[in-house]
Design goal:
Elements: E1 4-7, H1 17-29, E2 35-38, H2 57-68, E3 73-76, H3 86-92, E4 95-97, E5 101-105, E6 108-113, H4 123-132, H5 135-142, H6 146-166, H7 176-186, E7 190-193, E8 200-206, E9 209-215, E10 223-229, E11 232-238
Parallel strand pairs: 1-2, 2-3, 3-4, 6-7, 7-9
Antiparallel strand pairs: 1-10, 5-6, 8-9, 10-11
Helix pairs in contact: 1-2
Bound molecules: manganese (II) ion.
Manganese (II) ion is lined by residues 9, 40-41, 78-79, 114, 116, 195.
């Protein structure tokens, strides 16, 4: 049966090998799928394509095997792994999509994105994002040694964890107004994203049109997968 799968926010690193194993098993089991979309934060951090990827080579190899087996794999950058680049793309044979890409999902134009740009109430984060996603800043960062970048990634993660702890939960969710504007800008009634770790399917209207926003869950304690087939979508939880 035709089906397309979406995941995000696996936040893989060497400290949670059971999640990396669960994802490898998942990848091995989905050889009859039409496409897999990984909507960002596959990795807890990524310092560039020379990342040592400690403990994660089996995941990278499994993505490659899935692509080589004929399943198209698409990747959207998250706020943790935005330095995933061309060497990763070439090795895994995945295709990196721009954040905010409209895909045809069995006849329904569907906007896919990581989701961090929807959280516009978090002004401090959006300022930080504008800096680190700047092309020139990224080029300068990539000129540092791998050791320096690892240190930097560690520092940014610690900062992000403490900032997240101190922020009220509502500012870390999406802004409904930004969702509305983004969907209108792309002329879509369906949106799929991750990032907030608040899995759910939200039905609402924009200017009288029925709209749907699907939020993927993270892979901290279990797996979360959106399975779409013509006319149906299921947000599934996988036991790790
Ligand atoms: Mn994220």
């Amino acid at each position: 049966m035709p089906n397309t799968l979406f995941v995000s926010d696996l936040h893989l690193d060497h400290t949670r090998p059971h999640i990396a194993d669960a994802f490898c098993r998942f990848l091995r089991d989905i050889t009859d799928t039409d496409a897999l979309y990984i909507l960002g934060d596959l990795f807890e951090y990524w310092i560039g394509d020379d990342d040592p990827a400690t403990g994660l080579q089996p995941v990278i190899d499994s993505i490659r095997e899935l692509s080589l087996g004929g399943v198209p794999v698409f990747f959207v950058h998250g706020n943790r792994d935005f330095l995933v680049g061309k060497a990763f793309e070439d090795f895994t044979r995945c295709k990196i999509l721009q954040d905010e890409t409209v895909v045809d999902l069995y006849g329904t134009p569907t906007l896919v994105m990581h989701g961090d740009t929807l959280c516009t109430d978090d002004v401090a984060y959006q300022k930080y994002r504008a800096k680190v996603r700047n092309r020139w800043v990224q080029q300068a960062v990539l000129m540092l040694s791998a050791r320096q970048r690892l240190k930097m990634a560690q520092r940014l993660r610690d900062k992000s964890i403490s900032a997240t702890r101190d922020k009220p939960p509502e500012i870390m969710d999406v802004s409904e107004e930004t969702v509305r504007q983004t969907m209108l800008r792309h002329g879509v009634q369906h949106l799929i994203h991750g990032h907030t770790h608040r899995p759910g399917i939200h039905d609402f209207t924009i200017d009288g049109n029925a709209c749907r926003r699907i939020v993927l869950g993270d892979w901290y304690e279990q797996g979360s997968v959106l399975r779409c087939a013509p006319g149906t979508m299921d947000l599934e939880t996988l036991q790790a």
